[in-house]
Amino acid sequence: MSKRDYYEILGVSKSSTPDEIKKAYRQMALKYHPDKNPGNKEAEEKFKEAAEAYDVLSNSEKKARYDKFGHNAPGGFGRSSEYNVEDIFSQFGDIFGGFGFGGFGGFGGGGGGRRSEPMRRGSDVRIRVKVDLKDIAAGVEKKLKIPVLGRCEACSGTGAKSPSSISVCPTCKGSGHITKMANTIFGAMQSTTVCPQCHGDGKKITELCTACHGEGTMKKEENITFRIPPGVREGMQLNISGKGNAARRGGINGDLLVLINEEQNDELVRDENDLIYSLYISIPQAVLGASVEVPTVSGKAKISIDPGTQSGKVLRLRGKGLPDINGYGTGDLLVYINLWTPQKLSREEESMMETFADSENFKPNPSKQDKNFFERLKSMFQ
Ligand SMILES: [Zn+2]
Ligand SMILES: [Zn+2]
What we know:
The chain is built from 9 helices and 15 strands. It is an alpha+beta fold. It folds into 3 domains: 6-103, DnaJ domain (Helix Hairpins), CATH 1.10.287; 125-262, Urease metallochaperone UreE, N-terminal domain (HSP40/DNAj peptide-binding domain), CATH 2.60.260; 269-380, Urease metallochaperone UreE, N-terminal domain (HSP40/DNAj peptide-binding domain). The strands form 6 sheets. A 4-stranded mixed beta sheet has the order 10-11-15-14. Residues 152, 154-155, 159, 209, 211-212, 216 line the site of one zinc ion.
């Protein structure tokens, strides 16, 4: 059968505006709507034909292609036989606005869900996973045993004792929905609802699986391996698709939701992607200089303390912090230097300290240091 011209189908011309095309389609759709013409095959064909024509003519790219090449345009436009009435509804739902079609809530359960029945989905499973700084720095693979509802192996998730105990639902004849007549402003119309007998399955199970009592699911311990990316922080949630509970009698699994629990480190404090370490040095180390070790996420690092280092100095070890979760570089390790003041001295030590008391070199001269102090304070409160 040769295809009719799209403009002819809608009764519009090449120069018609998008609004005129929309209006023409709305009229056709209302006239040939299957709800108004129950069981009328010809009307249904016309309805689909109009939908196909509108699909092309309402899309500027497709329309340009059609204007240039007609039905033989490269790539084609799809055929009206590929359109089903329910798709047309979801695709062109907006077109019926203001025409009373909004009241057709019964059609397939209303609210956009015009497909036979949304896919059944198992529930999500939530777990908490502890990570330490090392895990956060490098990312980590976790292998866990997680209690979930899995598919019943005895019945392969069908809930039936054997394949022969599954038959077609007599109420809906296997379609999963039932059609009712209803009175509307257009007169008697059909409306479709989910079958109350099989809840959309379209199946009747005469003998239930004894292992799962017809649920199709079983409590299981699943070994699940997943990777926690570098840079995660407390309270973040990872979504591992399809690793949650199985759905009743088939369908798709829920997700595994992994909540990140960040373990506090004894030595390193986290500040976003930076790490902070509070280092104490002795008076001789501050005076004479020294090489000391500081902890990092990847073991110890050696840093050198310059002779004459003041208490409160901050050393920045670039790139020794944590990686950014979105890949924006790596933070730093900030080493705050504190001077350890001895709190207990021997007699000799005490007399040695007294010899320093009058030394000019030991008198504070903070003029230079104070400037740094304020700069440091400012950077801390940024
Ligand atoms: Zn079973
Ligand atoms: Zn049924």
